[in-house]
Amino acid sequence: MCGIVGYIGLQQASPIILDGLRRLEYRGYDSAGICTLDEGVAQIRRAQGKLLNLENLLYDNPARGTRGVGHTRWATHGRPSEINAHPHRAGSIVLVHNGIIENYISLKGRLQDLGHQFSSETDTEIIAHLVEDHYRDSGDFEQAVRQALAEVKGAYAVAILCIDEPDKLIAAKLGSPLVVGQGKGEYFVASDIPAMLSHTREMIFLEDGEMVVFTPLAMRFSDLAGNPLTKQSKTITWSPTMAEKGGYRHFMLKEIYEQPRALADTIAGRALVEEGDVYLEDLDLDDAQLAGLEKIFIIACGTSWHAGLVGKFYLEKIARVPVEIDIASEFRYRDPIIPANSLTILVSQSGETADTLAALREAHGKGGKTLCICNVVDSSIARESDGIIYTHAGPEIGVASTKAFTTQLVALYLLALKLGRIRRSLSAADCQARLADLLELPRKLEETLELDAEIEELAREFVNARDFLYLGRGNLYPIALEGALKLKEISYIHAEGYPAGEMKHGPIALIDEDLPVVVLVPRNSTYDKVVSNMEEVCARGGQVIAVVSGDDEELLDKVAALISVPTVDEDLLPIITSVPMQLLAYYIAVLKGTDVDQPRNLAKSVTVE
Ligand code: F6R
């Protein structure tokens, strides 16, 4: 996710940038860096790890100058290290970047052919070289930035300095956030409002494809083609803590709302629609190995285990490989039989969960190949796995996992498509169609978030329930489990998730008029069966909250409440239906007044057994 800050004015830039970065550390803290311009010299300081390391470096070796850029990093391309820390420099160009460049491999190849040499593993350094390449030709900083950005595909927010034109700071954005702060005789630019709030409350929000050129006396807005734009500033009234949460009341809600962006970032550069294929950059397992797989194990804990349960559906259906799934704390002690031509997939947001790490070592110890699906770059699980698929959810701060879960589902889906192609169980045309649907998903998720007010209202109706039951079938059974877990974790209401068809084998005895039953019943291949299960609940007076797709008028008069999500392919339903599960749990917890972001007894990362 990363945070960027830029400053140009009359004050020393370095303390202002550091203060801004401190307030953006929630966006990542794998490394931090700063560059100020001091009488034509670029003062670059970079340090691995938290901002404190950079602060110590600057204490020993201050960076002077009244203009500068800074960065706090959440690693995506390239491990967390000083070499990969921003700012990146190419000739007279110095740049910080937040986002993911999708066509970095082809751009890098072209630049290398032109003689450019790279010193980091990042996609960002490519933009610096690209700007520098154009700058060398034209000697015009602004034009060089425009030309470079026109060639870049993906998402970016950039702040760029040119050593030869020290009175200019240029910033631009596409897909990643960027806000301008207007002070008196000084200008700020940052990924988020809190970075500038102690200096100004006058903010201007850049839109995609917009660029701003600052000098100490003025700022000019334009589109990337150079057409001038007039922008209005807004006065921000948020408190600094509210601002860190982007104006949301809790990190959890902010993270629920970040899902369209998180999904888009996880798909970015991986969906090769024209070829009908998937590119997974760190898979590190060759096609012959993947083609010959006889078995896959998926191992994880908690919410990540629920993602694994959906993954089993994807891999078995699309790639036709048998999948065994287990909870990490069980797997590690059951002396599992791991055949040579098997793959063990570890799913973990943090990459530090002790049981999942132990399960990875167990699989390795028995000679198995391993692959992790992980959100934190260079975490223990990522370092020790043979292959990695990173979810690009960005830092997840709320203890209850939301955006990490849906991005794990996307990563597992992409893996299933990739294996399907390699194992020839999926045609290129089918893969193309599935990728086209997947690329639509962030927009559909955006639409799903419009259910917010409706679900808040529903939460009021059911907040006093003592227990909840969640029912789902097939790939929605794991979502029933996840819905129940979310509710338990943050509202402390007892909740159970069950396969809908299993209800009559026991849990049906619980049903009475006081029991809300959330039934996941969108139109899919088991729709009729789940409707029958739902009727069984209704017949016994249960209060059904039905999650349906599109307009399902038929069910309207049978149930206590209907939540309608957008229509998607049935394999993508687990992702879309997760959103109402998250929102329902969230609003019930808010009404109960619990500590939503740090619920009692729970820790974000369980690094002990
Ligand atoms: C629930 C939740 C936990 C984690 C579990 C595994 O909202 O967050 O159940 O999913 O502790 O953590 P990771 O994915 O970091 O291995």
From TrEMBL:
It comes from the Bacteria. GO terms for cellular component: cytosol. It is found in: Cytoplasm. It catalyses: D-fructose 6-phosphate + L-glutamine = D-glucosamine 6-phosphate + L-glutamate. Its EC number is 2.6.1.16. Keywords: Aminotransferase, Cytoplasm, Glutamine amidotransferase, Repeat, Transferase. The active site is at C2, K604. It holds the Pfam family GATase_6. InterPro entries: GATase_2_dom (IPR017932), GFAT (IPR005855), GFAT_N (IPR047084), GlmS/AgaS_SIS (IPR035466), GlmS/FrlB_SIS (IPR035490), Ntn_hydrolases_N (IPR029055), SIS_dom (IPR001347), SIS_dom_sf (IPR046348). It is an enzyme of class 2 (transferase). Residues 285-425, 458-599 form the SIS domain. Residues 2-217 form the Glutamine amidotransferase type-2 domain. Its main location: cytoplasm. GO terms for biological process: amino sugar biosynthetic process; carbohydrate metabolic process; fructose 6-phosphate metabolic process; protein N-linked glycosylation; UDP-N-acetylglucosamine metabolic process. GO terms for molecular function: carbohydrate derivative binding; glutamine-fructose-6-phosphate transaminase (isomerizing) activity. Coiled coil: none annotated. Catalyzes the first step in hexosamine metabolism, converting fructose-6P into glucosamine-6P using glutamine as a nitrogen source. NCBIfam families: glmS, PRK00331.1. Homodimer. This is Glutamine--fructose-6-phosphate aminotransferase [isomerizing]. The lineage of its organism: Bacteria, Pseudomonadati, Thermodesulfobacteriota, Desulfuromonadia, Geobacterales.
